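Re: [ENG-882] Designed sequences occasionally contain unexpected residues at chain ends

Forwarding the minimal case from QA. Structure tokens:
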């Protein structure tokens, strides 16, 4: 089975569509949260995520999805402006869908979660080996997949030894050796922060036991125009071209 992992779509329809076009040949799509927030197409992205789930995919709740339902009082000012606008744009049915999404899903030996997996509701970022170590200590899955930080990375825990971190190269197959545990952190579809503006996703081959981190170029200018037309903060538009 080939599984595509998309995270942090952030209401960026153009980036989302580019990733979906690039993953037409996969067997399943897993969305690791933050469907909405920041971008100008929260309703469309929510409906598309729901379609994917109805077709056999998996969709996880992110902190922006939760804030779109409950409010974002603890967010920074820019994120809070965007989430309040998002709340006004979503229908009651779309909000109800986001509210019912799970914080994590276990699928065979795999764990799907938005943030660090030992306590998903805390929305902790995985920024280094210490954060990854907390995840490994608090979970039992052999391979875990998360997003949240918008920076692609891969952590490995051998049977004996310390957690190590890799920054993956795009489209290079990485073998996930069975005698080790893994935490694959996705980059963002809708708001990359690693200096590359192309939408980020990854594909897992469960037969070959390997993962490929990939990028999908998209119409950044169109996404920017929509953000500006919606009256959202300029920084949310300008950062898309920088990938940061």
């Amino acid at each position: 089975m080939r599984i595509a992992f998309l995270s942090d779509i952030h209401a960026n329809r153009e980036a989302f569509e580019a990733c979906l076009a690039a993953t037409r040949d996969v067997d399943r799509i897993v969305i690791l949260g933050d469907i909405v927030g920041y971008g100008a197409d929260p309703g469309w992205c929510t409906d598309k995520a729901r379609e994917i789930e109805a077709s056999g995919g998996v969709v996880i709740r992110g902190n922006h999805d939760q804030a779109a339902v409950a409010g974002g009082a603890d967010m920074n000012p820019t994120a809070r402006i965007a989430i309040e606008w998002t709340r006004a744009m979503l229908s009651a049915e779309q909000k109800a869908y986001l509210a019912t999404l799970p914080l994590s899903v276990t699928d065979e030996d795999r764990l799907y979660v938005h943030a660090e997996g030992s306590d998903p509701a805390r929305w902790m970022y995985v920024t280094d080996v210490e954060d990854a170590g907390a995840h490994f200590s608090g979970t039992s899955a052999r391979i875990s997949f998360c997003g949240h930080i918008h920076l692609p990375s891969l952590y490995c825990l051998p049977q004996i030894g310390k957690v190590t971190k890799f920054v993956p190269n795009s489209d290079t197959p990485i073998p996930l050796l069975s005698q080790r545990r893994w935490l694959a952190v996705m980059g963002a579809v809708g708001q990359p922060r690693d200096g590359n503006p192309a939408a980020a996703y990854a594909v897992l081959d469960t037969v070959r036991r390997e993962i490929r981190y990939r990028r999908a170029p998209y119409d950044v200018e169109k996404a920017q125009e929509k953000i500006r037309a919606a009256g959202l903060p300029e920084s949310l538009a300008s950062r898309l071209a920088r990938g940061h």
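QA comment: On inspection the terminal residues look reasonable. The mean pLDDT is 96. Proposing we downgrade this to a documentation issue.
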